[in-house]
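Title: Prediction job returns without error message
Component: structure pipeline
Severity: low
Priority: P3
Assignee: unassigned

Description:
Job completed but the reporter wants confirmation the result is attached to the right record. Sequence as submitted:
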Amino acid sequence: MSQSTAVYSTPLHSLRDTVLDISPSATPRRIRLLDCLQFLDHDILAIHEYPDIPSFPYTAISYVWKGLDVDPNHTDDKYGTFAVKGAENGDPISIDVLKHACTAAVQNGTGYIWLDRLCILQNDSDDKAWQIRQMYMIYKSCAVCIVLPGGVRRLAQFDEETTWIQRSWTLQEVMAQSNVMILYAWKYGKALSGIKSVSALFAYTEVIQEGKKFTSFSIKFFGRAKDPNVSALLAVLDNGGTQSEAGAQAVWRCSLMRTSSFPVDTVLSIMGLFGVTLDPRDFQKGDRRGATIALAKEILRKGGRASWLAPSLSLPPAKGLSAFPEFPHVSVAGQATLTTEEGDRPVTELLPRVGEGWLEGVPTGVMDDTGYFTFSGPAALLVPTGLRKKDHTLYDNKSPLDANGQLQVVAMDGAIWRIHLDGEETYRPARRAFIVFIGALVHYTSPAFGACYVDPYRYRALLLEEDEPGKFHRTSYFALHEAYVPYIKRCKTYTF
């Protein structure tokens, strides 16, 4: 067992309505765990400190910073709540919820809990940065991850909706550890059997119980049926996370749709899934742009693909950084949104359905510190026609030839272009534009997405326009019918 130091100990009755501060006795850059047996058997909150991640079994908690409000009918509040120094903007921690979490942890063979609110020195920036770099391994190394979908103020009931699946950090927490359990309030008596879903088995173990007559119910605390966040998480889980290109693209989709207290957290919360460790001190809290460049650069350096391109094609390119989509607005509560002509809209409404599939063939390449992405792919010059299609749709490019037999294509912004396959030998514009083919959609195989089918409009291409010699920006994209395949095969390989 790793050598430990007791850094805090206090009776539970003395915690009610207080602000807990363990920093005077704690050492920065240490792993800290809550002792469940002291908590349950002696009503003492005891925190131990370790020089590194312990090798013995412990439980890690996944929850939301701002969870469910207090239920006026909620009576399970014997000990009250307390806050944590430096984290007063989060929900107060219910001591009763901690009791339930400790009970579940012990029932699953672990005697300690890691809860970031308690185990990170919230008012110490150095400790915080160090802990964030360890976060993925903390969850990966735990014996079990317990999800509190309603937060730490109270347990969610089975049919209550929560924001757990909309938060950035919870994606890494549930993906890092294969042994994940959900702790919630069940008030319908004994469960007769486990509850099966398309993608997972929910095994029922009684932790707390209030006997009531059984009534019909539906699972809601992770979202309703066909919720885009649920579908995206299923796409990650069912495809092995970032070990497959299909899963990597789903992780980026999740990241675009999820929200957090600070923009940079949307990047720091997924870096471990890609095997990357960034130093949080290199970025300001609002610097999602810089952190995204750093993460993408490292993924590409390690041989990964530009997986973020696939789920973000339908979003407007980021200004001055068109290798990425415009970065969504995030907040401590609510959804991730983008500003459109119709006002702010949830990103979930702007992305295509997950069921359309993932994009096979997304390029590799390199990225510099300013975000310039250099890659190669089959491409052809474009000649502007000056025409634009009104009411353009995903299904405009069915036939490659127009009424005059000219090879043409309609961009998703409605602009109509001629495809010039002969190359620059016969066409030398002052500023070039290219159609660059980046892959074809492949249907996800999970039963959650329905029967497998082949979309005839499954080919995707970028519209790149030249800013200055050799440097391009992405202005739109193309969805192409399979009738374009013979022309794609005739394209030359260009480097952009």
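Comment from assignee: result matches the submitted record. The longest strand covers residues 376-388.
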